Sequence to fold (321 residues):
Amino acid sequence: MAKKRPQTKAKRPQLTDEQIPVVGAREPCPCGSGRRYKACHGRAAAQAVTELVHRPFEGLPGECDWVALRELVPAATVELTLKDGLPEGVPSVTLATVLPMAWPALRRDDGSVLLGLQNDTPSGDLSRDLADTLQRALTAEPGTPVQARRAPADGPRLQDLLDPKGSFEPVVHDGFEFWVPDPENATPDVTASLERANAAAIPTVKLTGVDSAYWCETPEKNHLRWVMPHPEEQLLDALARLHAAGRSSLGEGTRLVGSFRAHGLTVPVWDLPSEVRAEDVEKPAAEFAERLAAALATDAPLTADERRARGGLTNRQVTLS
Fold:
C-alpha cells in the first residue's frame, strides 16, 4: 500500500471581523473556518440585523411624520435633502409612501429617485434598510427599480445620509398619479398597480394648525390620528387627566377612543362624525394642543377617576409596529 502523503494545510490570510464580507447563509464563511456562514460570522450579523430598533426615525427631522407616512397615510411624498448633496445625474430624491409594484425604490428615466417607505424590510432596523435601498437607488441605472435585499449590519442609517437640518414637509395626495409623470407611456403592470392602489386609498388630509395630525374618511365614520412625540407614560397620564375631566374631545360628537403604538411613538385616535371634515377640526385640534400642554406639565399623582380613565385608554391601545 502506498503511504499517504502527509496533509499540509495552506495558511489562510487572517481577516478581522470587520473584513468578513456578507455572503449567502449556506455558503462557506469567508473567514476560512470551514463552517457555513450562518453558523459562523453570519450568526452575529443576523443578530445585528434582526435586533429591533424601537424608534428607527429618532433624530430625523419630522420623526412624527415619518411614522405617520409609514403606518397611516396611503399616498404622500416628501422631498428629501441629502447630507452630502445630490450626486451628479440625480436631480431629486423623493420619499413616497408606496411605489408601483411595491418596489423598494425606483430610479426614474430622468435620474430622479423615489424611495418607498411602506415596504416590508428584512431586519429590525427600518432606518438601516431604507438607507441601503436609497444608496443603491442613487447609483442604479435610470429607468430601473431597486430590489429588496438584506442590508449589511454595519451599513449606514438614514440618520447618516439625510441632512439633519433639512425640512420634512409631507404632501398628501388624493391618489398615486405621482407614480407616472407620463401616463400614456406607463407599462400595463404599472397602470394596473395604479388602479388597484387608487381604489384602496382612504381619503386623508394633513392638518395645518398642529403637527403630524391626519384626518381620514372611512365609510362609517371619520377619524383624526395624531402622532405625538411625548414619552408614552407621560402622554397617557396627560390624556387621562383630560379624559377624566371631560376635556379630551374635539367638539360635539367626537370622542378620544384609544391610541396606536408605532415605531416608539404614541398615536391618539379620535372618532369623528361622518359630516366632520378636516377643516372642521383645525380649531378644536389647536385648542386641544393647548389643553394637552398644560396636562403634560402637571406632575401631581393621578386621581382615582384619572387612573380609571388611564386604564381605559391603555386597554384600547393597538400596536402597529
